[in-house]
Amino acid sequence: MTTIRGTEEQGATFVELFFDLVFVFAVTQVTAVLAHDLTGAGVTRALILFWLVWWAWTQYTWSLNEADTEHVSIRFITLVATAVAFLMAVTIPLITSPFGWLFPLAYLVLRTVGISLQWRLAAGDPVWVRSVKTWTVLSSLGLLAIIAAVFLPPDRRFLALGIAALLDVVAALGAGRGEWRLFPGHFAERHGLFVIIVLGESLIAAGLTLADHTLSVGLLSVAVTAVAGSCALWWTYFGWARDALEDKMKAQPPKRLGRYARDVYSFAHFPLIFGVIGFALGIEEAIAHPKDPFSVPGALALCLGLASILGGTGLALALARVRVPPIRWWAVVMLIVAVPLVRLMPAWVAMTFVSVVVAGLAMAEESSQHARGVSEASV
Q1: What's the whole-number mean pLDDT along residues 175-184?
Q2: What is the C-alpha separation between 239 and 8, in angstroms, rounded?
Q3: Is 0.85 topped by the overall pTM?
């Protein structure tokens, strides 16, 4: 029973990366759903959908962390989960249709397989089993809401899904207090790879939209600044924040490891990742209408999306008790208050402006971290 458990920490394996690619598609599906309904209700529905997608991925990040992913049975389980996750992703736009019951059904199967895997991995470790038991009992409440969503009419399905999302948070708050077995390096790496995947999704969205339009100076400007903005976003996470979060996780005592992973990664990375969806929608509108000012929904998606990415990383750092340079919070505030300004300028100019803000933050933080490193080394 314990042979499927890894004996030492390993890096992300090909089967995990293959599994993650399905969630690239799921993120793209959520982005498409939101693009067709950029209203308050549409954003709420997208938040619920993305939370469920994120929570399914997160559960497997916890489950596979201690597993020997080279073991044939782990590979088989992961590939089965990959197939189910693909069905879940395909049915995201169908939730309010007569076939919408397929989404909650696929999600239910996906989560059940993940919980079963956690039980198999924890077998023989009483402390770990106790934590998994608490997680299973509390998670069952949310899964009951998912079961209800299978049978509810399309117009009420989102209500059940929203309740399930809230109960997921309750389950995590309760079960996170337990003692969990986690390899910090692998855990941080999986989340870092997911950040890269979703940032790549924003560039894919830009490229696909760009391919449908005749090239012009304004269009080329939007494309260049979109790529520059994505690269700057990469730097704001991977320049130093990602390593700082991993180092803090490695320093956690066993009893606090689960709580740290829950708060810093499972919770705080959610607004970071969801913000990329808003950024992608902003890019799509700018490419479609480079010379026109952003619409109100487009300006909100662009600016609040970027603020959510930077703020989500800042929140993760703060929860990890890592000093967050004040300039990050100033950049978040600047992006939020810039929404009316973005509405007054051509889209290509607005894209240049927000990209300069993010790039300026990346350079300022890099300079600050370098100066801090030199100062500490000289002491």
Answers
A1: 87
A2: 27
A3: yes
